[in-house]
Design goal:
Layout (H helix, E strand, L loop, with lengths): L2 H31 L13 H7 L3 H8 L4 H10 L7 H14 L6 H21 L5 H22 L4 H29 L9 H13 L3 H8 L5 H9 L8 H19 L4 H15 L2 H7 L1 H22 L3
């Protein structure tokens, strides 16, 4: 496979996953924003925290001066100049897909192309506060539709592997960011871990990664930060956990290596990161500091993405 083709497939996977992750994060922010602020009156403003989670906070403040529902909708959803906006993600994913059209099945192309056409023809002009949740649900549904078409129709070859590597590198990044933001930014001065506000926030974090039901199924107890972190970091049966994501990155990198008879540095780096997640204990994570652990993971996951780009000449 040409490196240019591999790069288009890899980044298509990343941008589709990123659009879904942004939708999940913004829905959590919107729902938290409806929660009463028992200290200052009115409702709580969590938008700066979630701008941090989407890695858009600095540029958003430079362009709009403050983070609120309207500026987040403008910059994180609709701004084409923001490479991490929903608009830019869907447009770039479609552009990448069009460049490798012959590597995709008809169902995959139709799912992605229809998504872009509906966004550009309807949502880009019609999005408002009162239909934001409908839009975010639509973004998630379209991403799921594309993945379903991919898994149901695509050959298990290099093209399939590169799309999934991009998807799971992006997913790991998003899960780590949203966990880190909750633990260090959303807890207001004067509030304590385990309070009613804290419980509600953790519930919304679990909802944002479709894990609330899974949490109660596995632990059968009230929501505890210790258990939430364990579920989203170390439990491989949880499809949005860091361990699950790295297990898939490792698997698909190994499949490419087996097919071509050559391993790269990215195989070693992915294996090391996955092995650490397999052997870490949640007690050790909290003892060393959750923020420090997640920051280190983000650095290593980003380095893995860079190594993949280097090894395959993206």
């Amino acid at each position: 496979m040409l490196s240019r083709t591999a790069a288009n497939l890899y980044w298509m996977g990343r941008y589709i996953e990123r659009s879904e992750n942004i939708a999940r994060i913004l829905e959590a922010g919107y729902r938290m924003g409806q929660m009463p602020d028992w200290v200052g009156g009115g409702t709580r403003d969590e938008w700066h925290s979630f701008a941090v989670a989407t890695n858009c906070d600095v540029a958003l403040l430079e362009k709009h001066g403050e983070a609120n529902l309207d500026t987040v909708m403008s910059y994180v959803v609709l701004d084409e100049d923001n490479p991490s906006s929903v608009h830019a993600c869907l447009k770039t994913a479609r552009t990448n897909a069009r460049a490798v059209r012959t590597a995709l099945t008809g169902e995959m192309w139709e799912a992605l192309n229809d998504t872009w056409l509906e966004f550009d023809g309807h949502w880009r002009k019609a999005l408002r506060r009162d239909n934001l949740l409908n839009f975010l649900d639509w973004v998630r549904t379209r991403s799921i539709l594309f993945r379903g078409a991919m898994r149901g129709t695509m050959l298990r070859d290099d093209a399939f592997f590169f799309i999934n590597i991009g998807t799971y590198i992006e997913r790991a990044d998003s899960t780590a960011r949203i966990l880190d933001v909750k633990y260090h930014i959303l807890l207001k001065p004067g509030e304590s871990l385990g309070g009613s506000t804290d419980h509600y926030q953790w519930s919304q974090i679990l909802r944002s990664v479709s894990a609330l039901g899974s949490y109660h199924w596995l632990y059968r107890e009230a929501i505890q930060p210790f258990r939430v972190a364990e579920l989203l970091i170390l439990r491989e049966e949880m499809p949005r956990s860091l361990r699950f994501a790295l297990s898939r990155v490792t698997r698909y990198l190994d499949a490419i290596a087996a097919g071509h008879g050559q391993r790269h540095d990215c195989n070693r780096r992915a294996g090391q990161l996955y092995a650490q997640l397999c052997y870490d204990q949640i007690e050790d994570v909290f003892h060393s500091g959750l923020h420090e652990y997640l920051t280190n993971f983000l650095i290593r996951n980003n380095a893995l993405g860079q190594e993949i780009s280097t090894n395959f000449h993206f």
